[in-house]
Amino acid sequence: MCISSLAESDEQLVMRMAARDEAALEELYGRYAPYLAALSRRMLGDQGDAQGCVQDAFFRAWEAAARFDPARASAKTWLVTIGHRVAINKLRGRRPNSLPLEAWDAPTPAGDPVERIGLERAVGTLEREERQLIELAFYQGHTHQELADLTGRPLGSIKSKLRAALQKLRAHLDDGSDDRSDNRGGRGGEA
């Protein structure tokens, strides 16, 4: 890592990646691999699978860097979305037909303690059912229809409950309770 890369934003590094600059890829990997590994490990429960997902996510990011649009999302959000989708695909490829709702537990802490605390506070503001739906949808990879089948609730109710939960999380994270700056130049607080 060179000293000048510390001052570069994540978005600038993605643009350099689009120009096939391997040093930019290495810098982004250093910044976000631990975060993606924690997310993947939480979703998959296996360190080896999680590491494979991180490698695959960064390969996909390398291949898609020219299509990155900073007007649509921060580089962090873009990378986390890629990592989440890779882990979901892996999870769906090996998952049994259903998981009991009782299998829900609290999310594994993310790598950044400030982000973890902010997210834990935000999730703590949700009702129990909302927390369970967030867990099942985002960490275990269930579709809306699968959630409806698991819970016995109508699909529309599941979608509404998830949407409301996500809006509550966003409001809590955006209201200043998670107010911090990202020293890498990105839009801190997005995941």
Give an account of the 3D structure.
The chain is mostly helical and 191 residues long. The chain folds into 2 domains: 8-94, Orthogonal Bundle (Rna Polymerase Sigma Factor, Chain: A), CATH 1.10.1740; 98-183 and 187-191, Arc Repressor Mutant, subunit A, CATH 1.10.10.10. Helices cover 68% and strands 0% of the residues. The chain has 9 helices and no strands. It has helices spanning 3-7, 10-18, 22-44, 47-64, 75-94, 113-124, 128-139, 144-151, 155-177. Helix 2 (10-18) packs across helix 3 (22-44), helix 3 packs across helix 5 (75-94) and helix 7 packs across helix 9 (155-177). The longest helix is centred in the N-terminal third of the chain and has 23 residues, at 22-44. The protein is globular, with a radius of gyration of 17 Å. It starts with a helix and ends in a 14-residue tail after the last helix. 26% of the residues are buried. Mean pLDDT is 78; it is low at 1-5, 96-110 and 177-191.
Short key terms for the protein model shown above:
disordered N terminus, 191 residues, globular, 9 helices, mainly alpha, Rna Polymerase Sigma Factor, Chain: A, Arc Repressor Mutant, subunit A, 0% strand, disordered C terminus, 2 domains
